[in-house]
Amino acid sequence: MLGGAAALISLLAPAAHDPVPAAASKPAFTSVNYAVAVDESASLAPDDMKAEKAAAARIAVGDVSSASHVTVFGFAAAESGDQRAVDPVCPRTTLDAAGRDSIGGCVGKLHGRKKDEGTGTDFPSAIRQGVHELSSGTDPSVPRVLFLLTDGQMDVTGSPQYGDPAHRKDEGERQLDLELKNARAQGVQIWPLGFGPDPDKAQLDRMAAGGYQKGCVELPSALPTADKISGAKDLGAKLEKVFAAAHCLRYQPGSSPQLPPATMEVGISPLATVGSIVVDKSDPKVTITYIDPNGHQVPTSGSYRKSHFELAGAGDTVEALKIVDPVPGVWQVKAEAPEGHRSLPVGVSVLWQGELRGAITMDPPSPQAGQKATVTMRLQTREGYQIKDPRDYAGLRVRSELTGDGFAAVPLRLTDDGKGPDPTASDGSFTGSVTIPHSANGALKVSGTLTASGLSADTRSESGLVAPDVLPVSGTLRLPAADAHPGDEVTGTLSVHNTGKTPHTLRLSVADLQPGLVSVTPAEIELTPHDSGTKTVTVRLGPADAFGDRLDDDGLKLGGTVTAVDTTDHDRTVVRAPLSVTVTPEPGIWDAYWWAFLIGAAVIAAVVAVVLAWLRQRRGRLDPYGLVLQLVSEDGDVVATHPAGHGHKQWYEFAVVEPHRSPRIERRNHGRYAIQRSPEGGAWLRERGAGRTRLTAHGTVPLADGLSLSLGEETRSTKSRRNRPTWGSRPRTGRTPTTPTAATEDDGTSTYESYR
User: Fold this and answer.
1) Cβ–Cβ < 8 Å for 650, 676
2) In the UniProt record, does the keyword Transmembrane helix occur (predicted)?
């Protein structure tokens, strides 16, 4: 954010082909010293004052560095000897966990001025106070930022320190110019935020342009600008965009605000090394739960797997979960609230910083003078994975140049537009071409620097030598783009030619990747004089543990480089070939044996169908429906006839009613008797407490009271059951219905008409 940014770049940028640091290492990020000046003048309505206080609190808890400092003060105007223009409320506070929690309390002391407190707007005093807080006893290499929250309406007409009333306005303008110049000299950026119905945009722009203008990176997005906050709904998103620009952070909004209970989502880039999920709860009673892209609920303090967490503002209307080494992907934010606290929406966003790395290649690695070479710089995460989403590097600036012996530096233009030497647009590979000067006579070096707001700068270089007319050893490595699982191997071919009279040794290695992700074999290849042929090169992926939580169903795309160096010829690079492998998780049982599951499911379905058919057939063979039950007297006369219906579990239960006067059979649940069809013919009669008795088609079984039971003529069709006509339907044949038979419904208690 200051001139110290160059030192930061040189600190963070590794030398060419330096090992990529492990993902679990804690990144070092620039801290910020900033002050927040809050307008308390009478020109602001109570709601605007409330919005300013919320903005001040959000600025503090949203910072991603625990080494940052903040000072918060209110200002208006001193309009008598016992009044003061500035109200200090939060002294310089380190934004570690304890400091973040203390900010909400002291910000609450801000208040709108009453008439006896001085109600004007004294910008010169506010800027003077902010510059003093930011420059006294602080490291000048640490960025200094003053947020000025105001309606932009300067009013010092009631302030005696500005001299005669007739000249106070002009004197205020003069002192404002002096304070802006002092801010610029002290390296203090001024970011004005306009509140109220009609903030003075011209005045806000003037103050933004008057302070220090060099940002954390040399990009337009890092220049101080003024912005207007249009009400409470606009506060969160607008403030975070400004906050991100002032601190060179990335801002990513989440899903639309929702009323609790609700689950919202927000994405964290694979480039992020530290970030804050900011939740605007609107009501401090709302409680928040955070779930990472792998479905794990994470703690709000301490470490979980490779990430470290720190929560600030849990008891306030805005809270922020700071995460070091966050798992990339879509995070879930669950909001819950008790009854009576569910009427205000909850919003979510993320502010983050990250590391963007590049892998640079020159093809051929050692070109001849006058030969055209293609230079490619591929964007990667710090572990070496290729970047899938172009939005992650939006606003990127790529600078490249060719230097070497015998010629002046040649600037290169690298693009990712799919034109000229660049094969594919927006794939994260920036490509250009350069003709090696004819005067080149020794070492060559092509370098590229990546710069983007919110992403630490990275410089990469590739060294080579101007090749003689005939190279002793040349080669081409072909590695196919592949989809693989952890532990898999990808095989390529290395075509090599040794035209010399001496043996040469080639050393193979993988660059631009975190150690442990990939290995290459053989490590060395021996070439005899005049050796020419094709060698097999195998790239082996590391185990699943090497990829950690970043390996999900979408996979990871490795973007390393396989090199072959001629150790016999001054370590001259013979081959630099890009490695493009998409790593996906090892398939589960279903993915590996889905065909077996389908065959098994088909077999099971067939068996179930056969069993069900057998059960249906068995039930049909036992179903008593259609049996005609006859009561037979001691004289052998049939005194009553009763058709059986469908039974309960294939048993039709009944009782004999009035056996001595008018004997008949009636269906009775839990009756004394029950009958079931026998598959061998006839039926089985069950009497409660007496067991079962076989009843043949032409036989009888004695019952109580001198009665016996026999079977009459079967009423059920042996071929198929006739469909029962619907009640109220008309016969399609035009025949008139006959006298109804004694057929029964399924429950055996009601009759229906049948048609001839």
Assistant:
1) yes
2) yes
**Three-class DSSP category at 302:** strand
CA distance 244 to 454: 8
Nearest to 527 by CA among 485, 480, 564: 564
pLDDT tens track for 69-125: 889 999 989 888 888 988 998 899 887 777 877 877 888 888 888 888 888 889 999
**Residue-wise DSSP of 245-267:** HHHT-EEEE-SPPBPSSEEEEEE
| Tokens describing residue 273 | 């090394």
pLDDT tens-digit series, residues 603-613: 888 888 888 87
- Give the span between the Cα atoms of 203 and 209, in whole angstroms: 10
Using the Cα atoms of residue 41, residue 46, residue 48 and residue 49 in order, give the sign of their dihedral: positive
751 DSSP assignment: -
What percent of the chain stands above pLDDT 70? 85
Residues paired with 694 in a beta bridge: 684
Neighbours of 211 (CB within 10 A): 28
Q: What angle do CA 695, 696, 699 make, to 5 degrees?
A: 90
Q: How many whole angstroms separate alpha carbon 347 and alpha carbon 335?
A: 10
- Helix crossing, 232-247 with 46-61: angle to 10°? 40
Token pair in block for residue 19: 């090992």
- Closest listed residue to residue 388, CA positions, set 269, 487, 560: 269
Residue 382: beta bridge partners?
A: none
From the centroid of its chain, how far is CA 570? 47
CA distance 547 to 530: 42
Q: Tell me how far apart the alpha carbons of residues 394 and 218 are, in angstroms, rounded to a whole number.
A: 15
> Considering the entire predicted model, what is its pTM?
0.57
Q: What is the largest CA-CA distance in the chain?
A: 140
- The Cα–Cα gap between 299 and 291 comes to 9
- Name the one residue in this structure whose structure tokens are 């010629």: 407
CA quadruple 696, 702, 703, 709: dihedral, nearest 10? 40
Q: In this structure, what DSSP letter does residue 308 have? A: E
* Strand 307-312 versus strand 318-324 pairing type: antiparallel
Vertex 207: Cα angle to 202 and 208 (nearest 5): 95
Local structure of 360: helix, strand or coil: strand
Alpha carbon of residue 53 to chain centroid: 31
Q: How far apart are CA 344 and CA 566, in angstroms?
A: 68
Identify residue 679 by its one-letter amino acid code: P
CA 43 to each of CA 46, 121, 155, 161: distance values in angstroms, whole numbers, following the listed order: 10, 8, 9, 21
In whole angstroms, what is the distance from residue 692 CA to residue 687 CA? 7
Residues pairing with 492 in the sheet: 537
Q: DSSP for 455-513?
A: EEEEEEEEEEE-B-SS-SEEEEEE---EEE-TT-EEEEEEEEEE-SSS-EEEEEEEESS
Q: How many CB atoms lie within 10 A of CB 514?
A: 22
Closest CA to 107 of 322, 312, 246: 312
| Coil vs helix vs strand at 61 | helix
**Residue 710 to residue 631: CA distance in whole angstroms:** 7
